[in-house]
Structure formats: structure tokens, C-alpha cells
Specification:
This protein is of the alpha/beta class and about 600 residues long. It is built from 23 helices and 17 strands. Bound molecules: thiamine diphosphate.
Amino acid sequence: MKSMILDKITSSSELKKMASDELGLLASEISDYLINTISETGGHIGANLGVVELTIALHSVFDIEREPLVFDVGHQGYTHKLLTGRKDDFSSLNQFGGMSRFLTRSESRHDILDASHAGTSISTASGMAYSNKMAGSSDVVVAVIGDGSLVEGMAFEGLNYAAQERLPLIIVINDNGMAIAPNIGGIKNLFSGVDWIHKSRAWFEGMGYAYLPVADGHDIDGIRKALTEARSKVQIKPVIVHVKTEKGRGLPLAKNHPYKLHFSMPFNPDTGEGISATPVGESYQAIVGDILSEFMGRSESVYAITPATPYASGIEALMEEFPERAVDVGMAEQHAVGMAAGLAMKGNTVFACFQATFMQRAIDQIFHDICYPQIPITIVSARSGFSGYDGPTHHGIYDFGFLRTLPNIEIFYAGTKRDLTAILEQRCQHANGPMIVLHPYELISPSQDQFLPKKITPLNLMECVAEGADGAIIAVGNRLCDAIYLKEVVREKKEQNYAVYNLRWINPLPVEELKILFSMFSKVITLEETVRAGGVGSAINEFARSEKATCQIYVSAIDEGFLPAGDKKQLSELAKIDVNSIFTDSEKFWD
Ligand SMILES: Cc1ncc(C[n+]2csc(CCOP(=O)(O)OP(=O)(O)O)c2C)c(N)n1
């Protein structure tokens, strides 16, 4: 696709010389380009269409070599990518080894943050601005943050501090009224209504910021004017530039579905039709939604809480069905845990529904507000394990290691539909202490049922799904089908018959059974989709050593620190936890 102006830009500094009508043309070229390319690859279409003019204005006012743009999350940075020389990479979005969905320092020195988790920009920009101030430099730092991400605890902490220090810091708020779902809460109230400028000005100026509102965030001249004024005002005090934008501007895309507006799989560029926000098929999170719906219908004391991830955690429909008890608390993971604790302290049955990678934000709340006082809530954590094309920091491969060291918490990994259903039913009926239920991202494999015994083994015990005398394969959660496949490979290539066990209750481990297993088999292999350090295999190994078990244990787990975006097969192969790699790498083990 030819773009008359975009194609000629070699550096964003060229924008400074452009007249306003040329900048306007550039904006419409970029919008068209984004629609055309993202409709083929999939990506954060709505979030990006909303900030085309804002990003052009930022690049045309600031010298990004000296005045860095620090984007929060980075999912809205596609225009920034285009203006910093990455047009040719767009066709590789959402492909293994391709361009990131977020901003990342490995792609450009103008991507200041390796973000993807929200709320970090103000603090980091504050540090950079502080350093400038100490060096006697008048260079400003510009943080760009959405109204959704602004409510993150860390963003509030940064907002509080930056006002104290009178830093050369400009905070640009991209206010479109949305997180992924519609934004909620006090900040939304502040930012909405006919008097939003009056209310917001009072709030920010009261804190010590200069405040510059831009009511039309698609008027490049208007934004440029405010940014230029901010640059002069910031020499006296930090400045908030509050820009109203429209998410998904210019595309009639999935108007009735905010998630699809935020991120979309490939779609028809003219109509926006044909979008599936996530892969089609039966998902684990849908099971969570169904079970909770059933129990919330039966009992008025069942609650579900999510920190702005209703789609990923499967409670979207539940929020419509039970709007008072299935609640989105905004992008506030720590608050979600605290609020869940409070509800449970009043005798309610509470499910805090997270996406695994964001649950990490609330580890201390889990430790301090849940584990120590032993509050009987259930944290349901979706996308534990590989999380597809979101990127290195989104994989839920660290959760078990983080959680395992916390006292008083039980951890369950549901790798089958049957086990997920059973544990949630159990928790709905009786939650006697803190528990976290992890489940994977991939769709439910229709073949998993054929391996499972007719009668379910009690959930806290290992379940033998295939007999064998030569050794044991212990599969954690979603590795069960792989374990069966590995058994077949070993039988075929080594003529050995391994038993296969489904391990779901991963903390505490079923120690009595493990002791028996260690004495029955001289060889044990564990499979998991978690990092090795602190993983389940590592825990089993530690226990075996403490028991002075003599069996040989081979732990298949992830060694890489950070894995790229990719699908499960690609990532398993890269991490060498796929069945073929396990077999080849551990060939001596089978002899
Ligand atoms: C800590 C954390 N929680 C949740 C998310 C998931 N997430 C990604 S973008 C987003 C919405 C961001 O809203 P906003 O900052 O207003 O930007 P917009 O997409 O509306 O432009 C959410 C909830 C995340 N990336 N990080």
C-alpha cells in the first residue's frame, strides 16, 4: 500500500517542518495503513486508531532524541513504530519472531520502556526526569498513559511523587473512557460529564500539576498547542495534558464488543466483520464463567471479581447476568485481592478472576492479606503457562514459583475441563482456606476425555491415567496429552512401558503418594509448562531428595528466562519441553 507522506518519512524530526494540513493527511494515511495491515495480521486496532493524531502531535513537538516519549503498556504505540522506521515490519505482527504487539527496546532506541504490564510509565519517566533535574538539564520527559492504566497502583504512586519533586515531567493522559472493558470508578467520574475539565483541573492543580485539557484529541493543531504550552510550563512544575480521544476512531469495528475494539484477530477492513477476538473453540475461561453462573444463580453470597480482565478470565457474560456480584474493579490487581478478602471476611464465597501474568502485581496482597490471615478466597488465574503472542512478559510461566513459597495457600492446576469443573464446584460448596486455581490459555483439547478414568480420583491425589511398570511420567495440568504421547514414543522406541499420572493439586504435593511412587519406580519424569526454578518438578525433586529416594528424576521444564511471543508448539520446541525434545535430550534416561 502506497502512502504519499508516510513513505517519505525517514525520521520523526521531519514532522516538525510539516504544515498542519500535511500532518492531517499523514494521520489519515496512518489510520488507513493500520486498518489495512492489522486487518490481516490482527493486533491492537482500536487502541491504536485512537491515538494516531496524538502520536503525530507528540512527534512533531518533541525532539525524541532528547525528550523521550514513555508510553505506558505500549499496546497503543503502532503510530510511534511507524514514525520510527518500522513500517516494513508490520506484516510480521503476531508471528513468531515478528514485530512485537507492544513497544520494546529490542526494536528501537525510541521505545523507552519494555512495557506490556500497565501503570509503569509515570514512575520510570519520573526517574528519568529526576536525573535530568540533577544534571541541570532542562530536557523534559513525556509519559503517555491511558485513563484505564492511570488507576493502576503504581501509576498513582508515581503521580503522587512527581508532584512533590516538581520534576520536568509532562504526563499526557489519553482519555478514551475505556480500559479493555469500559473504564470504571472515581477517575472515570472525574473525567466524565460536562464539567470534566473543571473537576479534573481542580484535582490535578490541587496536587501541584499544571493542567492543560484538550477536548478534541483528533485535532492535531489543538494538541500541538497544548504540548507546546506544556513544554514551557514544565520548567516551573510538572504538567498534565489531558487529551480526550475516541478508541477505534474511523472503523465501524465491533462496536458492540469492547474487547474486539481493543484487540482483534484478522477482520474485514471495510466492515469490521469476521472478527474473533480470541481463538474459537471451548476455552477453560468459559468453563469458569459457566460454573460460576450456576452457583451465583443458586446462592446470593457468591461473588466474582476481576481487575479489568473480564474477557481473559471468562466472566464477561457473568457481569451482565449478575451485575452486582460479578464486578470489574478496574485495572487494580492489588485492590482486587484486598476487596476479595473483605467480601470473604463477611462470609461470602469469593472468586478473584485474574490473568496469570497480571496476578503477579498482587503477590504481596496474596501473601499479606490472604495467606497470613488464611482468608478462604479462590483466585482463578487464566493463561497460566504460555500465553501466545502477547510477548515475553505476558507468559504465565512463573506463577507456581512465585506462589509456592507462600505459606497457607493451596495451588491447583486444572489442565482438563473435568478437573476445572470439579475444583470450582468444590470451592463453590466449601472453601476452607486460600486457594489458587491455575488454568491454561489454549483451547480445551477434545481428546483429553478419552484418557481420563471413568471415575474421577479425589482431586488432591495423583490420578493414574495409564498403567506401566518401567517408570512414571507425572504430568502437571495441561501436559497430560503430552505425557500420553511421550508414553507412546518411549514404548515404540525403547520398548518400555511408563505409567502416566495426572497431577493437579500441586501445593501441597501429594507426599504420601509420591513416597509410594518413588519406591515403585526407579525412573520418574515430570512434565510442566513452568520455569524450572521453583517449578513443580523442582518441588518433587526436592521432596525426593529429602526422602532419600533412590529413583532417578528427570524434570522437563523451561530454562529460558524470557520467552518470545509464539504459539504453544513453537514455544514448547524453543524451550525444549515438547515431547520430541524431551525424548531426544533425555535419551540416556530411558536406557
Ligand atoms: C497490570 C496490567 N493489568 C491489565 C493489563 C491488560 N490490559 C492491557 S491494555 C489494557 C487497557 C488499557 O487501558 P488504557 O490505558 O486506558 O488504554 P487504551 O487501551 O484505552 O488506549 C488492559 C486492561 C495490563 N496490560 N497490565
